[in-house]
Amino acid sequence: MYRPKSTVEQWRIFQAVVDCGGYAQAAEQLCKSQSSLNHAVAKLQQGLGVPLLEVRGRKAYLTPEGEVFLRRSRKLTQGIEELELLAGVLASGWEPILRVVVEASLPRQPLYQALADFSPRSRGCRIHLVEAQPSGCQAVVNKQAADLVFACRAFSGVTSLPLATTVYIPVCAPEHPLARFDEVTAHELDSELELILADGSEQEEGWERAEQRWIINHLHDTLSLLRRGVGFAWLPLEVVAPMIDSGLLQRLPMANQALRKRFTHLILPRPMPPGPAASLLLSLIRHHYGDHETTPIGENTASSNYREGTLPAP
């Protein structure tokens, strides 16, 4: 079994002697006797078998080996300080992990912006960001297996907050036969292949008259197939707009200007109010989604009350 030959306190004393320029100055700063500092550094060097300092007159100078150990020891003591600070943070109720689940078909730029703002204030809290299909989101909510869930629908019995409206448009590759039409009707879509972003575990929403459907589990796969001229799909305008602008995809000009809209709901699956880290992230999410259109969806799903209390204000 490995037994350390040094202590954290010895490394801190070694660093103080270097930073202060000598034992006497370090002793004054640390409120310790000079002899105790001499003893600590001597024992450290003896245990390592490497000279770290040499004294010339009243000043201590680093040896070449000491320069290497000084850099490494600073990382060590900084890590110890961070561990001790983290212990205090967790003792105060700050969550060590936040699990965030996002439905695959939803755009998430405001969420990314919120997470970017959360990162420097996270105080060691880790984020687990998971993409799921509608049935997966429902399972997570039922099991209370996440702190935050972004979904296209609200769920009964849990807190739900409408965040934004997402517009879905039909798109295909520029070389797809549908791209030749100046105006696309339901008749033209009758026999065309539609790519449905879903998991196939339930009756999936698609173009009502489409006879052929492929169920695709990931947005990346859907976009890759579309760019290769395979089928058409209804996808979020925010997601496909850059690809339309660059000519990689083409928006289908529907005869009746048909659009689909879905709401982004923020679901809090657990009955207890969120902790301090979740509350911070929640306020940042509400702030960034505030720049997006939010449409009322009725009292039942728009209600943001807990069984006891309300959602934290942004």
Automatic annotation (TrEMBL):
Keyword Transmembrane helix (UniProt): no
InterPro entries: LysR_HTH_N, LysR_subst-bd, WH-like_DNA-bd_sf, WH_DNA-bd_sf
Lineage summary: Bacteria, Pseudomonadati, Pseudomonadota, Gammaproteobacteria, Aeromonadales
Start-end of Polar residues biased regions: 297-307
Domain HTH lysR-type positions: 7-63
Keyword DNA-binding: yes
Region (Disordered): 293-314
Protein name (database record): LysR family transcriptional regulator
Keywords: DNA-binding, Transcription, Transcription regulation
PROSITE patterns: HTH_LYSR
Stretches that traverse the bilayer: none
Family assignment from sequence similarity: Belongs to the LysR transcriptional regulatory family.
